[in-house]
Amino acid sequence: MLFEALRDVDRLVLLGDVLELRHRPPRYAMAAARPFFEELGQVLAGREIVVSAGNHDHLLVESWLLERALQAPEPLGLEQCLLPAQASPMLARIAEWASPARVTASYPGLWVRPDVYATHGHYLDCHLTVPTLERLSVAAMSRALGRPASAFARVEDYEAVGAPVFAWRDAVAREAGTGGAVNRVDTVRAWRALGGAAAGGSRARKLRKLALAGAFPLAVAALNRAGLGPLRTDISIEELRRAGLRAMGEVADRLGLDDAYVVFGHTHRAGPLAGDIESEWRGRGGARLVNCGCWTYDLAFISPSGGETPYWPGVCVIVENSGPPTLKRLLANRSRDELAPVRGADPTPSPA
Q1: Which of 100, 180, 246, 252 is within CB 3.0–4.6 Å of 45 for a Cys-Cys bond?
Q2: Contact by Cβ (8 Å): 178, 24
Q3: Contacts of 219-224 spanning 24+ positions with Cβ under 8 A
Q4: Whole-structure pTM over 0.85, yes or no?
């Protein structure tokens, strides 16, 4: 479906987390991604693919960031356009696979149009009120470095607290598989337990869920006292949406994006969709937020009934020469079973 939708586009922008680099060594993700990029390059022959980096594949720009640190660089702006070989050896290899399409990189985002800025959106974790692993990690780094998010005003501020966290996770996954605490599995399990503390399962399971639900507010209060907040105890699906939008609006305001359209992903919740409250999708400084959703199959957010959930995978954003960006749901008519990953599928890493 994606390849069919690309037949008439001039440029494809991949907004980060294209590779999953914090579960296992990079060779596995690269082996899995190679067939996709080879076919994508044929579909977009002679046209451009722009790759940005997110929190799961920050390694795609790490080499460039290191080289930049060895010099006396200009301030890190909203858009650094790079050749693949400048960004990293991994991206250079991806560019080879995607030939005859032309691959470039841009970090932390790019101006798709003078009034449309696109970025992965991982900076929003610095302002999130939901106690996710990412939020707590950057909060701890922020506190350790004495750089409170309330004072952030530049891209460098966000990179200073985020990049060390990403580098640590990349290092953990470099030689072996990681555990659930690192790759978000434990966070998803906790959401499920808190969301259904009194429903279903054995008596022992119900008691464990009730105990977790009772302890959660105390844990959040302790985190706030430790200076890792402000955090809230509400982790409902509705609050996940609202909190993500508030946080992204805060980032847009602090980086001076004013009333631009800001296209991002990261939180996986596509929008605005029909029925959404328009005011929730406006940043504090006027930015018009657009979430391109995700292409990740995550049972924590996918219902058996199909594409009705805003977390359903397969969403993209179309940016024309004028007018507001529009969402297109390419997989809305597919069932959950059709999209389920094949169990046991594990591509053999290729040395090529």
Answers
A1: 100
A2: yes
A3: 219/131, 220/131, 223/131, 223/136
A4: yes
